[in-house]
Write a structure and sequence with these properties.
362 residues, Jelly Rolls, 8-stranded mixed β-sheet, 4-stranded antiparallel β-sheet, disordered N terminus
Length: 362
Amino acid sequence: MLALRRLPRALAPLQWTLRGRSWQSTLAERTRSDSTFGIPVIDFAPFRRGQTTDDRRHTANELVTAFKEVGFVYLKNHGVESDVVDNAFEKSARFFNLPMETKLKLAWEDPRSNRGYVQPGRERVTQSSDPAEIARLRASAPDSKESIEIGRDWDPTWKNMWPQHTDAPGFKQTFLDFYRTCHDLHVEVMRAIALGLELEERWFDAKVDEQSHNLRLLNYPPVQRKLLEQDGQARAGSHSDYGTLTFVFQDSVGGLEVQNPHTKHFHAATPIPGTIVVNIGDLLSRWSNDILRSTLHRVVAPPVGSAAQDDSTPRRQSIAFFCNPNAHEIIECIPTCVGSGPKYEPVETEAYIVGRLRSTYH
């Protein structure tokens, strides 16, 4: 069942009693109003510890229902230990504290690789595919963040760009281990989705086993609040993600907002300690014939209570693990999701993701 104790006020609408009504129908009703919209909190422990398929199916159905209606969940009892997450944040902060000239030695170069350091202003995430429009947005309202992108370290073509051990002790091993931990969780969540879509539980296993993912460490430096409140400005503009799932590990600052798919208004994804924010990406939405929602989201100025004395926003950190199918997997409609017919032509994972990356960087 949902674990909804001690939630922030913004999530209070999700605290209800079923009283004989299905959780699915109740969630569907509540997401259609901004006054009752919220991101469900799903306890993943019953799935991880379930001894039989029937034991796991209940959690799988809750998860898929949430992804159908909202596209986002808070996942608790996910198996990623808190000390592992804390260490990752500590190593990430130390990297971003390095001098710019040191970080630029690792500069991002190629969307096919998608590895290396991305300085503030270089990326402009958006739903637009028009190069002129993206260039205009980048010039007028660049994303106020920096990142370093990490892929699978054994790739035969593309190599990760690691800082020197003397500059960032323990950085490489920390994130090699973290990458594997996130991949293992990805496999488990995809198994839950498979069950919820009435597929064999391991239906996705061989389609994601090459670990063609992207681990992104993000740093949002302090910035004058008034600059972020100007029209079109954001720490990260409104966008959807590209792959199957995204795992977002947040610090306590806040600023992530999720769009209500029904009203198109944005709502705060308030950090909840011990949870991972998980959302559906475009390729899994296509795979499921849009049964699962790839929901727009953005990062804006955090709540006013988080402001520093000089009215600048505090530094914000997050870690995003972008889960992808295997690079050469052909994404075509899942057999149980065909309905009245597939909405999309088949597409190769790598071709789709590289195309999206090429349009958002310069």
